[in-house]
Amino acid sequence: MKVKNNKKGFITNDLITIIVVCLVLFTVIATMAYQSTNGEKYRIMKYSAYNMATSVAHYKTDNEGLEAHYLQELIDNGAYSNVKNPFNSAANCSPTESFVRDVNSKKYVTLKCGAYLIDDQYIGEDAYTIYKVGPWHEGMKAKKGVQTRAKYNLLKDGKEVYPEYLDEALFIYTVNKDNDTSYGSIIDINKELKVVEKPFYRTRIVHIKKQD
Question: Does the pLDDT at position 149 exceed 80?
């Protein structure tokens, strides 16, 4: 009795093998393309942050006493423009959560673009870290992976003046701008106005560490 070759079965198995190989290749190529595209976006974010920090070296302001100069302040005074979010071409990086600190003539920059954050990075280093962060919340508990920060608002006639609570340096700058004053600290403001301080929390995890 002759055994018939099941050519149809061989063809089906070969076809499945080819499909599986193609899917694997497609996944590898797609992953490489994604990493390459995102790698370029990370570099753009880094250079945007460093350029913003460099611009502060030539920035002259009446708010020299502030420990940080926020992007919003730089925009208001024509010293810098909005920073495009490299991860979303239709959006800008946050002007109220991006700032530059000058410590002993060394520039440290924070830039928040959507959910991505370069946090207090010294611009003299080539290596940099990008974090993924959540929104600020009240009522969370301080723990690993959770960032804590005091934020401020004014209270007038029992109502909060600003729609959101602000970081200390931005709060002082905003109060001075809105009231044509020159307060140098929260304590100075609280002598004449009612300041409200609240703790805020957000998640912050390392997304990538790079060396460019």
Answer: yes
**Nearest of 111, 109, 56 to residue 79 by alpha carbon:** 56
CB–CB of 106/114 below 8 Å? no
Mean pLDDT across the chain: 85
User: How many other C-beta atoms can be found within 10 angstroms of the C-beta atom of residue 50?
Assistant: 18
Give exposure, 63-72, as e/b (b: 16+ Cβ within 10 Å): beebebbbbb
Q: What is the pLDDT of residue 35?
A: 47
Cα–Cα distance list, 138 to 17, 198, 200 (Å): 54, 8, 5
Say whether pLDDT at 52 is over 60. yes
How far, CA to CA in Å, does 168 sit from each of 75, 114, 133? 18, 21, 20
